[in-house]
Amino acid sequence: LDAAAARTGRVDAVIDDLIVPNGLAFSPDGKTMYLSDSHASRQTVWAFDYDIDTGTPYNRRVFIDMNAHPGRPDGAAVDADGCYWICGNDAGFVHRFTPDGRLDRSIAIPTSKPAMCAFGGPGLDTLFVT
Length: 130
Fold this sequence. Notes:
mainly beta; four-stranded antiparallel β-sheet; 48% strand
């Protein structure tokens, strides 16, 4: 927040055209922000450049058109290699995309509605899906 916003409590939207925002994640270096819209009319994941000092995303671009893949985009995480993992809700998949947006793998899971994925365990190398 700038000083005026801090005094008034006013916050201006940086991204204001989302219907069902989801899939928020950051690259390992913090310089790329990912954000999806799960709404049936969107099903898109965008990448943004991210200013770490101001907390501001900019340079929005389509990263993944999820209409080309099974499931609506839902919760997401980024692994140590910078790959973006996103739940394919309604389809029972978790998809992994490389930093250039290429589908690297899809893992079928025993539920149709995966909602969130995250990495944990001692080496942060275990994928947890809820």
